[in-house]
Queue: 2 jobs
Job 1
Amino acid sequence: MTSRWKDVAMAAGLASGDGTVRPTIFAEMSALAAATGSANLGQGFPDEDGPAWIREAAVDAIRAGENQYPPGRGIQRLREAIAGHQSRHYGIDLDPDTEVLVTAGATEALTAAILALAGPGDEVVTLEPFYDSHAAAIAMAGATHVTVPLVPSGGGFAVDRAVLSAAVTPHTKLILVNSPHNPTGTVLTREELSDIAATAVAADAIVITDEVYEHLVFDGASHIPIATLPGMRERTLTISSAGKTFSLTGWKVGWVAGPAHLIEAVLAVKQFLTYSGGAPFQPAIASALTDGDADIAELRETLDARRELLLASLTRAGFTSVRPQGTYFVCADATPFLTDAVPDGAAFARWLPAHAGVACVPLSAFCRAGSETADALSNWVRFTFVKDDATLATAIERLETRLSRG
Ligand SMILES: *Cc1c(COP(=O)(O)O)cnc(C)c1O
């Protein structure tokens, strides 16, 4: 008898020898940060809540009585706002009644889509490193996880075209894309996306794309939804959420958009995961998606400035880092600080809070145990810059004054 939860724990790297589930590395590092009074640049959630007017809109909705189950697909006004957002930003036209589904964050959309469309015997291809819930959902579905490394190359992280072609086979059911990419901060180029699209068409695979950082791009990079590439609209489910875009991660309002028959499949699963949720948040996010472009631009500017501060500080402290074009994160190579006692990124992340008063997470936490990518990135760690000015200043001062090379 096997229990699916064990596969899930294993896929997420959380299986411990005694049959229990370990806390995630994010929880472990946050606990360590709290215990040591460290500036927590580990877990990536904002210190500052999103715009007051959006929060007030949710309060108004509670007062106005929007407190019972919303429709399973989400309220009409939010589905229309999501369709409007996709059309305004990317020229993607969607029927809000059949091609948009509101979910409990991007996480539920991802899990419901993977459970709906993949099962035992199917292969699901992702980039590696990957967001932890992607691997867990693939394991829940009982499907096989195949990865394509995203490895340091010429100052950034890149997809190797040959490895991608070899990974996508007739057994590939789904290709899971994530751009802007967590944890590396990579924004996939049109060429990389075209290569992925070509392999998807050749294998007749469906693409699921996690675009939760779609608006958090820097240096003039542009986010290209893979659904906009030729031939991709009919085989792509595009997933995003309000959490990162509006600094409201606890509201868990997400969505998935794509062709009606695929949305129907996701709905069939989603309605028995949560059915629906977030009644008063849905109208507030509808307004945010319609009238919040200035707030998004302001967040992007604030984060851009924090990104520069952190990058400069990491360089002064002695790290080699990759300049991220998107997301909340900077990845850095901790090799100069490693010693016999602190031999890799995971050990460094556990050592740093007590010795320098800063927390980060190792990139190996986003890789499969023992994989080639885990090996290539074994000395790398991820820092987030989505922290208030005081926390970031504290972290920067400590990294520069308390760290010395091993
Ligand atoms: C934060 C995050 C999510 C989760 O989004 P929710 O809307 O909070 O469920 C999904 N994918 C990536 C890559 C993330 O960083």
Job 2
Amino acid sequence: MDPRPFLAVATLLVLSASAASGNVAFQVHSKLKGRERSLSALREHDSRRHGRLLSAVDFHLGGNGNPSDTGLYYAKIGLGSPSKDYYVQVDTGSDILWVSCAGCDRCPTKSSLGIKLEAYDPKSSSTASTVKCDQEYCIYANNGELPGCKSDLLCQYNVVYGDGSSTTGYYVKDQMRLDRVTGNLQSSWTNASVIFGCANKQSGDLGSGEDSAALSGLMGFGQSNTSVLSQLASAGKVKKIFAHCLDSKQGGGIFTIGEVVEPKVKTTALVPNQSHYNVVMKAIEVGGEAIQLGTGILGLFDDEKHAIIDSGTTLVYLPGDIYDSLMSKILAKQSGLKLHTVDEQFTCFEFSEDVDDGFPAVKFQFAGSLDLTAYPHDYLFPISDNKWCFGWMSSSMQSKGKDVILLGDLVLSNKLVVYDLVNQTVGWVDFNCSSSIKVKDEESGATYAVGAHDLSSRAAQVVGRTFTWLLLIPAILYSLPS
Ligand SMILES: *[C@@H]1O[C@H](CO)[C@@H](O)[C@H](O)[C@H]1NC(C)=O
Ligand SMILES: *[C@@H]1O[C@H](CO)[C@@H](O)[C@H](O)[C@H]1NC(C)=O
Ligand SMILES: *[C@@H]1O[C@H](CO)[C@@H](O)[C@H](O)[C@H]1NC(C)=O
Ligand SMILES: *[C@@H]1O[C@H](CO)[C@@H](O)[C@H](O)[C@H]1NC(C)=O
Ligand SMILES: *[C@@H]1O[C@H](CO)[C@@H](O)[C@H](O)[C@H]1NC(C)=O
């Protein structure tokens, strides 16, 4: 077994929370300086002239949620003029898009995913401009003006992860290439101007390892105004609704912006005023029996539990007491099982029969009578022939003093998950993510089918490399020492 620790990218520290400590404005790079004013003026003029509704957008996905395979899902995006392709992780647990930039110190240049890692170079894009620290976006992204901000200083960003790895750079504005849905399984290229982070320095696991599942960046799909989704919505191009169907069987899946007409999903309300996608969890059943916690009656939790829906996290993290009850209920059905620990973190065992016959399904119940069932083939992942590990992890994450449950790709895969930020709901339904859904084109009112895509390179799927586990969650969840 490879002794290297798993790539555990933990705790996305959103910079706005630490403006005082991490952010400094710095001098603009002279090469870009001269032409910015005129370019941005031109672009604004252009976008007013061609200001058309994008409506539904189709992103192409690759990867899968199996930690012993890819362990993450990524999307291909196009940036700049001429447009170049970048592969970025899709993360509903964070709020900005950033990509590795030319000359970046310790940005990965090779990936085990068999994809080409391109570095974005603002100097080679005719539509690039930098964002200054006194601009509205910068002030919003940093919860106020950066200390020492003078006009012409760049707006810097800095994202720190709990394992100490980080990405730092500055914001740029450029054209993003988007596939507008124009017919059944049809799309056409269109552009939108977006602000994103240009990474000039990375450290820790983010910058390392030729054998790691490295990507060119990360696209945060959180609720904050800084996300690409919010930017497109504020420009009046899309409705603030998006959906993903992550296909853990075939790889890739469906990822769209726009109102989903088919299939219909049952929904639960998002907890108000949370930066991420929090919902209220009421109970958990294992093979039809509720797990009992505290003095809760009828199997309901005795206090309200929040669960966070996060596509940037691979596994599922449960508070210790819930984890213990869940595992003992599952293992009660398989008393002869010999458990062992792999890489000091994962509970694994040998099993030669069909796991779906041998283990119970786990059902999470949410407010609004929405539930989510994780079948054994979802929550167990194979590491080799007849060897399986549990994807449930015990954690002690808290939000406002309350335990938080983090639901990652392990249970979000093979479902259509719809995030409706207009109505402040999230919902899902079991779905074949290799098939297609129907979305609404707001301009014409027509509904069009959007199909699955899989960018994964088959050749890249080497058996036996390091596992990949991601945990992209905001630091705010942890009770940080004060
Ligand atoms: C998108 O932008 C590029 C570069 O500016 C341009 O060449 C292309 O024609 C644009 N495409 C559309 C559909 O606007
Ligand atoms: C975020 O954007 C929306 C429009 O999309 C706007 O109404 C709201 O005021 C913005 N919030 C902030 C804090 O800028
Ligand atoms: C959410 O925040 C808004 C503005 O800060 C406030 O008016 C509202 O009462 C808050 N809602 C809840 C449920 O806390
Ligand atoms: C959002 O809520 C409104 C009012 O309840 C409803 O008419 C609309 O259909 C909902 N939108 C979606 C996408 O469900
Ligand atoms: C899922 O959909 C694809 C494409 O329509 C189809 O080929 C496949 O058989 C379906 N899988 C299942 C399990 O129904």
